Amino acid sequence: MNYAVVIPTTGRPSLHVLLAQLVRGIAGYSPQCPSRLQEIVVVDDRPAPGKPLPVGPPVRVLRTGGRGPATARNAGWRAVRAEWVAFLDDDVVPSPDWTQRIAEDLRDLPPDVGASQGRIEVPLPAYRRPTDVERGTAGLATARWITADMAYRRTALHRVGGFDERFGRAYREDADLALRVIDAGYRIITGRRRTTHPVPATHDRAGPLASVRAQRGNADDALMRRRHGSGWRQRIGDGPGRLRRHALTTAAGALALGAASCGRRPLAGTAALAWAALTAEFALHRILPGPRDMAEIGRMVVSSIAIPPVACWHRLAGELRWRRVLPATAQPAMTLPAAVLFDRDGTLIHDVPYNTDPAAVRPVAGVKQALDRLRDLGIPIGMVSNKSGVARGLISPEQLEQVNARVMQLLGPFDVLCVCVHAEHDGCGCRKPAPGLVHAAAAQLGVPVHRCVVIGDIGADVTAAAAAGAQGILVPNARTRRAEVLAVRAAMRAIAPDVPTAVDIALSGRTQ
User: Fold this and answer.
1) pLDDT at res. 203
2) What class has domain 339-508?
3) Which CATH architecture is the domain 2-203 placed in?
4) Which candidate in 345, 415, 457, 461 is catalytic?
5) pLDDT surpasses 90 at 260
């Protein structure tokens, strides 16, 4: 198991603290550890090019030009090949043993686990009550699925299409992704690793009207409602929100102004009292938990007056903007195979009967690119091959190993290699068309056999797949008998003209 780390950034100084911690984790990699940090990718999402980020090897830098964290994270995970992608915010501080802990969190997870969430710690001041901004940051410690520290399986990201780039801010894009991953059949678990998310040193750093600017997120809430239905807040563990009270407060204020302009003083007075009462309740709700110094109280009063109409405005704008968005359930997730298994001779390489010479290995055109495509998606690949020449004394085990090593040298690594060395009449359960090789490969990969796809050039390959409960795709060549092609077609199994097309079919789910 290996993983990559993706960090979107706008160039905050805190990035260097984070990178220093991670680079130490790479330097401390031990060959005895089967799980390792493969790569660190920083995605520079500053709108203007500016000065290059002062980072060097082993960190790779990509640029997305200020298109938002969802776009930046998509660019990052699509650029790596690791099995898992860990997303970190550029202002977090992982624990000193974070690289070891995440390796433990991700190692040996079953295939139905699509993501692992880290434990977020927010250190609040011990000598006073937290401010409004500090309380907002503290909420990250109990939030679900936030990308401050969140690792996703690459196959899960690909299956659901990654982050929805319509979420242009660092808000709700992580919850939307998690809901779609869960709806695709994956589980999300919480790991043991810990990451610290600092709070702003002062309120001024966030700005005196930060809470007012934050109301832009109401437009994203409208998108969440369109995507996931009216119960989306409950699904992500969020409270009911205050939008209805904000709407009532805004309506009372508007009625007071309208009635006053028309000279209807009793109505204006009643509406004004209602507005004042609602605003006072909202302000007290925010002031009482805080430090209650005069500066903080002043900010709370001013922002409590401004927030209700601003929140309603952004929600209305969001409802209008996203009114044509389809629910996430109307866009089914791509069904990817859990593994793709290939026959060797005639499928991956040109068939040389009972080949004992590694120099005679010649890959079939397009195979290397098709295999790399599966590797890029994080889909395990394997080789399942009959080699009766060993039982017949035509090939020695050492020669077989040398030829297979040459295949992998030319085509890249395989996650599993299962070979039957028995002769046709030995009565084994592994020789294709028996299902033994397919079962063995799925077991070694730890994936359900029914979600495997077997690609081969003869009928025995497809028959073995069917006998194991897997899907089979026939790629005929000049040596494939016509009767085998007709039998596969009669069984309504997939047939492809070449291996790249067979991989296309496997990824599309159209194997029958």
Assistant:
1) 41
2) alpha beta
3) Alpha-Beta Complex (3.90)
4) 345
5) yes
